[in-house]
Design brief:
This protein has 77 residues and is α+β, with helices and mostly antiparallel strands. It is built from 2 helices and 5 strands.
């Protein structure tokens, strides 16, 4: 599986985007060996504001969109 995976967490906690307490959390992360590893947890308001677009919150992803990573190409002879 590739790309970010969204999961709805049925638990109370703090939104990492706004810092507010929320009754329902949404998390984005990766799955490895059938285990979900969250990288960002947000409340419903922040999730609806960004409409699930993880790239709008990830500074590395935004930087790579502006300047793509260098691709290694074989030298021509």
């Amino acid at each position: 599986m590739s790309g970010p995976v969204w999961k709805r967490l049925k638990m109370k906690g703090t939104c990492q985007v706004t810092g507010e307490e929320s009754d329902e959390l949404f998390a984005v992360g990766t799955v490895s060996d059938f285990v979900f590893f969250p990288t960002l947890v947000m409340g419903r308001e922040a999730y609806e504001r960004y409409k699930g677009h993880y790239d709008h919150l990830d500074l590395k992803a935004l930087a790579e969109q502006k300047v793509p990573s260098v691709i290694s190409r074989p030298e021509q002879v």
